[in-house]
Specification:
By secondary structure, the chain is an alpha/beta fold. It has 15 helices and 19 strands. The protein has a 10-stranded mixed β-sheet, sandwiched between helices. The chain has a 3-stranded mixed β-sheet with strand order 10-13-16. Strand 11 and strand 12 form a beta hairpin. The longest helix has 21 residues. The protein is globular.
């Protein structure tokens, strides 16, 4: 077996030494790199004329768990899917002119979870892990700490300002990320009343699914999974009627979908649960849309039934076409939520394909909108202990082997590896020899250093990509809760609107700048 592994690695090494170019011939010429850099410089110089327009529309793309290593690996995968070596490829988010870093810690956690972070980048305040739409004064799972500690989101600010609003996700619509846009819950796991303790129900706390329909009336577009949390307990699912785990969960007997349908029947409201129904809609005839395509989370894009299940890109396309009918503009939250799930399961191939699909959705949104009046932000809530390395050669498949054996156990290893997770495997007291398994398989669990049932989040900063009006305000390194304040400022919604008094279509920064100057003067006097 050791001989077989050695032959495999040697063949990888020899592939670049027998005349096969490892990179394009033009890259040998310094003129290629100089010309590319000069063109990039010219493009950068055009950014000196800042876009200070008022943002009619604001879009947030949230890649759950999409840390910087995931972005880089997804870039390579995107290129390789298009027949390129991958490293030189541009993601749609790579084309955004402004990039910054966000610090992701929760108020009580160095390495955060998706609930506390969602409260930060949607509601503008940092919060405790496991809680959504409440301040850090609220304690996880303690219902009686909810009241008085609620915080509202940018989706609410946009709705109050007369904009249309939407949520699109590949997870349950009542999962951590989307729920912070509308719910106030001290426990992210209270999906329906079935998951809540009796004490919390007695104290008057509401489950998250119920809050989706009650807290912010008339959210214009809701697309994702989570069907089972909307129906009475043991109600058979429309798509999987014979599978008990997909049946309804609600103990209160309410059918939230039917309630929504009855409410919206005279308001051009439509409920859909499959791709055919979704794509058959004429957006011009739809003002409200509820789409629940799975009982829980949507399937991974690699495993998606393309005949019955819509892609993230298709959902975003329909959502924008409905929302943009509002002359006052719209706010849209889009979550590529299963990037995170792939990483937790140690399934890097699933995670990276989810990231590539989200990038396609970003591209589609760009075609349907204009940077002149639409601010688009792409970021992550947190990272993962995922990385890739091993001195791989140019164009090496991102899911492939490093070009060497370990000098400790003399076994090959994949470039992709996790710091912890379910991929830790010991066979006869030694690390598993991965040449005995199909490490290119969709659900292969990459090897990890520490054994865990589920891989964990990472604690490093995440990238924030921005384009459109006032996107330059997302610069440098900031707290994660800064993001919605910038987006609201650009759109003239929420608490900070003094600069919006001009009627020229652009924002007036003078009141803000004068306030900063005044603050600086006071500081100088005090010092």
């Amino acid at each position: 077996m050791k001989v077989t592994a050695l032959l495999i690695v040697c063949s990888c090494l020899m592939s670049g030494s027998l005349g096969k170019p490892l990179f394009p011939e033009q890259e040998k010429d310094p003129k290629f790199w100089n010309a590319w850099a000069q063109q990039t410089l010219k493009n950068a110089l055009t950014l000196q004329a800042l876009n200070t327009n008022k943002a009619k529309n604001i879009i947030l793309f949230l890649g759950d768990g999409m840390g910087v290593p995931t972005v880089t690996a997804a870039r390579i995968l995107k290129g390789q899917l298009n027949g390129q070596s991958g490293e030189e490829t541009q993601l749609e988010m790579d084309k955004f002119p402004f990039v910054s870093l966000a610090k992701t810690y929760n108020t009580n956690a160095q390495v955060p979870d998706s609930a506390g972070t969602a409260t930060a980048y949607l509601c503008g305040v940092k919060a405790n892990e496991g809680t959504v739409g409440v301040s850090a004064a609220a304690v996880r799972s303690q219902c009686n700490t909810t009241m008085g500690n609620e915080v509202t989101s940018i989706l609410r600010w946009a709705k109050d300002a007369g904009k249309s609003v939407g949520i699109v996700t590949t997870t349950r619509v009542n999962h951590a990320t989307p729920s912070a846009a509308y719910a106030h819950s001290v426990d992210r796991d209270w999906y329906s009343d079935n998951e809540m303790p009796a004490e919390a129900l007695r104290d008057g706390c509401k489950d998250i699914a119920r809050q989706l329909f009650e807290n912010i009336p008339n959210i214009d577009v809701i697309l994702g999974g989570g069907r089972k949390y909307m129906f009475p307990k043991n109600t058979s699912d429309v798509e999987y009627p014979s599978i008990a785990k997909h049946s309804g969960t609600r103990k209160d007997g309410r059918n939230l979908v039917q309630e929504w349908t009855d409410k919206m029947k005279d308001k051009k409201g439509h409920y859909v649960w499959n791709k055919k129904q979704l794509l058959s809609l004429n957006p011009n005839n739809v003002d409200y849309l509820l789409g629940l395509f799975e009982p829980a989370d949507l399937t991974y894009d690699l495993e998606r039934n393309t005949e019955t299940d819509p892609s993230l890109t298709e959902m975003v396309d329909v959502a924008i076409k409905i929302l943009q009918k509002n002359p006052s503009g719209f706010y849209l939250l889009v979550e590529g939520g299963r990037i995170d799930h792939g990483h937790h399961e140690g399934k890097a191939k699933q995670a990276l394909h989810e990231a590539v699909e989200m990038d396609r959705a970003i591209g589609r949104a760009g075609l349907l909108t204009s940077a002149h009046d639409t601010m688009t932000v792409v970021t992550a809530d947190h990272s993962h202990v995922f990385n890739f390395g091993g001195y791989t050669g140019r164009g090496n498949t991102i899911f492939g082997l490093a070009p060497m054996l370990s000098d400790v156990d003399q076994k090959p290893f994949t470039s992709i590896i996790y710091g912890n997770g379910p991929g830790y495997k010991v066979i006869n007291g030694e690390r598993e020899n991965i040449t005995t398994v199909n490490y290119q398989e969709n659900n292969y669990q990459a090897q990890s250093a520490v054994p865990l049932t589920m891989e964990t989040h990472g604690g490093e900063d995440v990238a924030v990509f921005a384009k459109g009006p006032l996107a330059h305000l997302l610069h440098g390194v900031h707290e994660q809760n800064y993001i919605p304040h910038v987006m609201a400022y650009a759109a003239c919604i929420g608490q900070n609107r003094e600069h919006c008094r001009t009627n020229s279509g652009s924002t007036d920064l003078r009141p803000v700048l004068s306030s900063i100057a005044a603050l600086f003067t006071v500081t100088q006097l005090l010092c």
